TrEMBL record, chain A:
Keywords: Membrane, Transmembrane, Transmembrane helix. InterPro entries: DUF2975. The chain crosses the membrane at residues 7-24, 60-87, 107-128, 143-160. It comes from the Bacteria. This is DUF2975 domain-containing protein.
Automatic annotation (TrEMBL), chain B:
InterPro entries: Cro/C1-type_HTH, Lambda_DNA-bd_dom_sf. It comes from Winogradskyella vincentii. This is Helix-turn-helix transcriptional regulator. Gene3D superfamilies: lambda repressor-like DNA-binding domains (1.10.260.40). It comes from the Bacteria.
Length: 174, 68
């Protein structure tokens, strides 16, 4: 049992490290200098020109939304880190602890809010004309599988809540 | 909980200490204290049987229903 937990912990760490390195690499490749260009443009822009339709504003929106996607990816990795907390609880023999129930709910929340957040950002990207957005096609993307995964974690939290009650009942049966 | 455990009364009547009873029926003193304090959620028939045997009494002497 302890060996299995150690293996799972190692796998989780590996997944986390890969996810973090991929995210950091994407951030490195992303050209943050565009923000400086935007700042320079904001200083010299013609104030009579409409902000929303100007090319620079649209470009800046694109970069801001892409940065938003980075934030959500980081948030998802933060969600993965809760697996380590769950494994730590299991390792100490506290299978049905309040902490585990809380962690399952948090992972469910993070998975679902990540998917909704990314969908909204992709819609906004399409709205400023940098990509196309078709709701049905977006739902076919891999990341939307996190919605059923999130729901599965909510269900696990409910099951663990019942398990905790059953454990307490068992402990208080003399 | 409307079920009251009158173990203290029976122990006084029989002149037995709760530690002795715990040893006799094979439960820990911690579980005996849970039983006496009324925090127990349930009692096994085997435990009830052992208590009745040790104290030479009936289950009704130990358990009582009191409406809340």
């Amino acid at each position: 049992m302890k060996d299995n937990i150690n293996i799972l912990t190692i796998i989780t760490w590996a997944v986390l490290l890969v996810a973090v390195s991929v995210l950091l690499n994407d951030m490195r490749e992303f050209d943050f200098n565009q923000f400086e260009n935007f700042q320079n443009w904001a200083k010299t822009a013609d104030r009579n020109e409409s902000w929303f339709t100007s090319k620079n504003a649209i470009e800046w929106s694109y970069y801001a939304i892409t940065a938003g996607i980075f934030f959500w990816r980081g948030y998802l990795i933060y969600g993965f880190s809760y697996f380590l907390s769950i494994l730590k609880e299991v390792e100490t023999g506290k299978y049905f602890s309040d902490k585990n129930i809380k962690y399952f709910r948090k992972i469910g929340n993070i998975f679902i809010s990540y998917t909704i957040g990314i969908l909204v950002l992709r819609f906004l990207l399409a709205a400023i004309g940098e990509s196309t957005f078709n709701f049905i096609n977006e739902l076919k993307e891999e990341f939307t599988f996190l919605i059923p995964a999130g729901l599965a974690f909510y269900i696990l939290a409910e099951i663990f809540e019942k398990g905790k009650q059953a454990k307490e009942d068992n402990e208080l049966t003399i | 909980m409307p079920i009251v455990v009158n173990l203290d009364k029976m122990l006084v009547q029989r002149g037995m200490k709760s530690k002795e009873l715990a040893e006799f029926i094979g439960i820990t003193t911690a579980n005996m204290s849970i039983l006496k304090s009324g925090k127990a959620r349930a009692i096994r028939f085997s435990t009830l049987e052992a208590i009745c045997k040790a104290l030479d009494c009936q289950p009704s002497d130990i358990l009582e229903y009191v409406e809340d």
